[in-house]
Design a protein that fits this description.
The complex is a heterodimer of chains A (about 250) and B (about 250). Chain A has ten helices and no strands. Chain A is an all-alpha fold and about 250 residues long. Chain A has one domain: MetI-like fold, CATH 1.10.3720.10. The longest helix of chain A is centred in the last third of the chain and has 39 residues. The model of chain A has no long low-confidence stretch (mean pLDDT about 90). Chain B has a domain of about 70 residues. Chain B is about 35% helix and about 25% strand. Chain B is built from eight helices and ten strands. Chain B has a six-stranded mixed sheet, with helices on both faces. In chain B, strand 9 and strand 10 form a beta hairpin. The longest helix of chain B is centred in the last third of the chain and has 18 residues. Chain B starts with a strand and ends with a helix. The mean pLDDT of chain B is about 90. The chains are: A mainly alpha (about 250), B alpha/beta (about 250). Chains A and B meet through helix 7 and helix 8 of A and helix 3 of B.
Chain lengths: ~250, ~250
């Protein structure tokens, strides 16, 4: 186990070394494949000079706002649809249809509606995060053990009590799995949203670096986006574990 | 008239054969009645009619003279599975009936702890249900059903999934707890020995009807080695024959 983990940690430096060696020996132009040393230098310049910091803050903010908005609305919509079967039967085909629509394809339209900048990106991100939460909330609430529902009926629980004390807690693992999916998608939404309609942010910076033919900076930005994603994903895992542990102490 | 009166109760879906087909049954106050039958004979459905979880399509179920139309606060129900909430502590699970009627007070907590003590689980009050064995979970489910001091307790094969020794311990626990407050009990099982050991009266159900009834005149409280008594075995054999007569 520890050997496997060690090997996993050693793989990254090994790959970077191979990449660096390839760039130096093959004479491939740095514009096509920049060596890791150049990427590291670009990253260092951007971070130490403070030039990249506002972009990181921008993308992180858009991601957080979009994630929060999309998840809250998706969760509430999931609860409403789970509690109102008539409404679900009415809307479900449309929900399925809208699931398949590539949400990013709506970005140009959102720019018309919300203008360039943060609002459209947040809207796109929220839209992307909405569906996993909706879907998983709906599934999670419907999977409630029928015996436990009967128990709550026997104890004459109100509908709200059954929802808050039985359905949501018992569906929480499924709902949190939806949150994890939403977190990954939120980063995609924020970065790609910026490609299309952003002036600031890591996605917008990639487009700018492309315009300047600065491949090293583009790779540096990839690295930053990956790091941002991993931090948020790990934080979500922590949150999930904390919530589920709190639930099943014992 | 008894405490529980089931009058020509019938339950079925549409034109399909009725699941419960005209059952008449009376349980006196404080009596312990058992209902035995093979799987699918309608015994669980009859129990749910008594609980008010299902409404009879014809006939009626009366408790204390009033027709049952919905679950009543003075009726406890123990399901086949313990159905504990895994995200709540054992004590909170026992307090659930009170928690759904408002905030449980100190006397409610005291009562819940007393019941947990009576089933030997006071050390587990703050643990989660996942830390408990199957038999312990069933004990918590019984404590939860009794915490409101119901006048009538309905049990649906609560010990079917347990090993023989644990089952015998739980049977004794149940008899003890129900005798304390003179709780009226209707206990559904497919285990003949269990029905004889627990019940004052045993009814055999087959194809939605009560086919046979048997009065069990064994001493109360049940002595521990009653299960090896010839009279006990005779009653088991009689009950078995009654079931065979209908099953064929």
């Amino acid at each position: 186990m520890t050997r496997g983990r060690l090997a996993s940690w050693l793989l990254l430096p090994a790959l970077l070394a191979a990449w660096e060696g390839y760039c130096r020996l093959s004479g491939i132009p740095a514009l096509v494949v920049p060596p890791p040393s150049a990427v590291a230098a670009a990253l260092w310049n951007g971070l130490a000079g403070g030039r990249l910091l506002p972009h990181i803050a921008m993308t992180a903010t858009e991601m957080a706002l979009g994630l929060a908005l999309g998840c809250v609305v998706g969760f509430l919509a999931g609860v409403v649809l789970a509690e109102a079967p008539g409404l679900r039967r009415l809307l479900y085909p449309y929900i399925i249809a809208s699931q398949v629509v590539p949400k990013l394809a709506l970005a140009p339209l959102f720019i018309i509606w919300f203008g360039f900048g943060m609002t459209s990106t947040v809207a796109i991100t929220a839209l992307i995060c909405f569906f996993p939460l909706l879907e998983n909330t709906l599934t999670g609430l419907e999977q409630t053990d029928p015996n436990k529902r009967e128990l709550f009926r026997m104890l004459r629980a109100t509908r709200l009590q059954t929802l808050l004390r039985l359905k949501i807690p018992s569906g929480l693992p499924v709902i949190l799995a939806g949150l994890r999916v939403a977190v990954v998608l939120a980063l995609v939404g924020a970065v790609v949203g910026e490609f299309i309609g952003g002036r600031q942010g890591l996605g917008a910076s990639i487009i700018a670096a492309q315009g300047m033919m600065d491949s090293a900076l583009m790779f540096a930005l990839f690295a930053l986006i990956t790091a941002l994603g991993m931090i948020v994903y790990q934080a979500t895992l922590r949150l999930e574990r904390w919530l589920l542990n709190r639930q099943s102490k014992g | 008239m008894g405490f529980v009166d089931i009058e020509r109760a019938r339950f079925g879906y549409g034109t399909e054969p009725a699941i419960v087909d005209g059952v008449d049954w009376t349980i006196g106050e404080g009596a312990f009645h058992c209902l035995v039958g093979r799987s699918g004979c309608g015994k669980t459905t009859l129990l749910k009619l008594a609980a008010g979880l299902l409404a009879p399509t014809a006939g009626a179920v009366r408790i204390g003279g009033a027709a049952v139309r919905a679950p009543r606060p003075d009726v406890g129900f123990v399901f086949q599975a313990p159905t504990l909430l895994e995200w709540r502590s054992v004590l909170d699970n026992v307090l659930l009936p009170m928690a759904l009627r408002g905030r449980p007070g100190p006397q409610d907590r005291a009562r819940a702890l007393e019941l947990l003590d009576l089933v030997g689980l006071s050390a587990y009050a703050d643990r989660g249900p996942r830390a408990l064995s199957g038999g312990q979970q069933s004990r918590v489910a019984i404590a939860r059903a009794l915490v409101t001091r119901p006048a009538l307790l309905l049990l649906d094969e609560p010990f079917a999934a347990l090993d023989a020794i644990t089952r015998e311990e739980l049977q004794d626990d149940l008899l003890r707890l129900c005798a304390r407050h003179g709780t009226t009990v209707l206990f559904v099982t497919h285990d003949i020995a269990e029905a004889i050991y627990l019940g004052d009266r045993v009814a055999v159900m087959a194809a939605g009807r009560l086919s046979h009834t048997l009065t069990v005149d064994l001493p109360r409280p049940r002595p521990p080695d009653l299960r090896y008594d010839p009279r006990f075995n005779d009653l088991c054999r009689a009950l078995r024959h009654a079931m065979d007569g209908e099953g064929a």
